[in-house]
Amino acid sequence: MMHLVIPPEYAVVQKQLERYSCNEAGIRKQIVVVPKLQLGGVRTVVLGNFSFPVPGAQQGVIVFDACAGDAFKHLIDAGVSRERLMLAGVRSWQDKQFFDQARIRYFTMQQIFSMGCQDVCDTIMENARGWKDVQVRIHMGVTDPAFSPANLGGEPGGLTGRELLYFMQRLAFLQHLSLVFIYGTDLARDVNSITAQLIAKMILELQPRNLTQSFK
Asked: What does the buried/exposed string (b/e) look like for 22-48 if buried means 16 or more CB atoms within 10 Å of the residue's CB?
């Protein structure tokens, strides 16, 4: 089972989610919509702009974002170890020197293209398995606007919808993945509900999976 916090402006995502009974692996949908974030116990996906809870002392954070901004500085100031921070999908730097000096692990879109999603995801999973708790933050601007026209980044050269779903399918195997935030959209700008459909499929693929449910 997985919890979903969905604000009114994301109602179209819930409508798209109702179209599906299972994800691509055939795992039946077991998602409960809850009115607010309740920490502890159940994996929870939160949609929309949200005040991120301060990560715990042993919690790691994986961020999918096109722009490497000040968020990582705030995480380090909050006490999150540099060894428990990762960034994927960046293609626009604000302060690359900070990331290099802090030795924060990152994967640019150029690296993802040259290495391939599987190798990048293998590295992310290998690191995250050593953390006691995992939080994932996904700004939809990490995708190319062709695949999510309502994302607030709008910069070409990002992940395809298929690539983003692959990352979600792999991350679902992390048994200690507790929180996922999906944000960075203006669904009023969506085209043919493409972004809403992609987010709905992301949610489905993030349902907890175990080793008996082989990845295909």
From this structure: ebeeeeeeebeeeeeeeeeeebbbbbb
Torsion sign (Cα): 187, 188, 191, 192 = positive
Q: What is the chain's pLDDT, residue by residue, as a tens digit (216 residues)?
A: 999 999 999 999 999 999 999 999 999 999 999 999 988 789 999 999 878 888 877 899 999 999 987 889 889 988 899 999 999 999 998 889 999 999 999 999 999 999 999 999 999 999 999 999 999 999 999 999 999 999 998 889 999 999 999 999 999 999 999 999 999 999 999 999 999 999 999 999 999 997 655 555
Q: Look at residue 24 and tell me if it is in a domain.
A: yes
Determine, yes or no, domain membership for 210. Answer: no
The range of the structural domain enclosing residue 9 comes to 2-205
Query: Residue 132's domain is classified under what CATH number?
Result: 3.40.800.10
